[in-house]
Amino acid sequence: MEIGQQVKVFRLRDRVSNGVVSKLGKVGTVKEFKMTDGSGVGAVVEFEDKTSTWFFEDELKVVE
What InterPro entries does the entry give (predicted)? Predict the structure, then answer.
């Protein structure tokens, strides 16, 4: 996974807000990476509606 790639949210690992749940199945663009809880890296994804949020890498799949 690289910055600028299109990704699809295919699962959610934790309980999250309804706003984040609404992104399930949506495609967005990876904008940056950030450290999560010290044991992994998350990706900040921006969607078509210009909203963005971060996800664990295993919650995303690269769109081919």
Answer: Tsr0524-like
20-63 pLDDT per residue, tens = 888 999 999 999 998 877 777 899 999 999 999 999 889 999 99
Q: Which amino acid is at 14?
A: D
Which residues are within 8 A (CB) of 35 and not within 5 positions of it... i.e. 6 or more apart?
41, 42
Buried b (16+ CB within 10 A) or exposed e, 22-34: ebeeeebbbeeee
- Is 6-62 a domain of CATH 2.30.30? yes
61 neighbors 44 (Cβ within 8 angstroms)? no
The pTM score is 0.86
